[in-house]
Design brief:
alpha/beta, Nucleotidyltransferase, domain 5, 6 strands, disordered C terminus
């Protein structure tokens, strides 16, 4: 089973994870959704926000923009991050579950087709996780 979280705001992926108030938590097994619930994000400090996500058992976070310190804390704790994502939450989720998640289709405007989550501090590729 895989547990993913999507930061949400009014039915869409929240534009900035650092200040997002809600997460959609979805459990996926054999390419099927087996459970979901919404979680309120009570923590505002980055270190607490990352810890909250980790305590929820999230393995993958799909979000909009995210600060480097928060992204690095999450990744250091074993949470994979697909950032700079926008669009309707249900469309993003459905595409991910079906295995046809197209990064460019859900890329935030102004990102120029580049996602930083695969870049290290000096531009080294980290590689895809899936």
């Amino acid at each position: 089973m895989m547990r993913i979280a999507i930061s949400i705001w009014e039915g869409r992926v929240s534009p900035v994870f650092d200040v997002a108030k809600r997460l959609l938590i979805v459990d996926i097994e054999n390419n099927h959704e087996v459970g979901r619930y919404e979680e309120i994000m009570p923590e505002t400090e980055l270190i607490n926000r990352a810890g909250h996500v980790v305590r929820l058992g999230v393995q993958l976070l799909i979000c909009g923009a995210i600060s480097w310190p928060l992204e690095e804390r999450l990744m250091a704790a074993g949470v994979r991050v697909i950032s700079q994502t926008c669009g309707l939450v249900e469309g993003v989720l459905r595409s991910f579950i079906r295995g046809n998640f197209n990064e460019n289709m859900f890329l935030m405007p102004g990102c120029g087709g580049r996602r930083r989550r695969f870049q290290g501090r000096h531009g080294q590729r980290r590689g895809r996780w899936w």
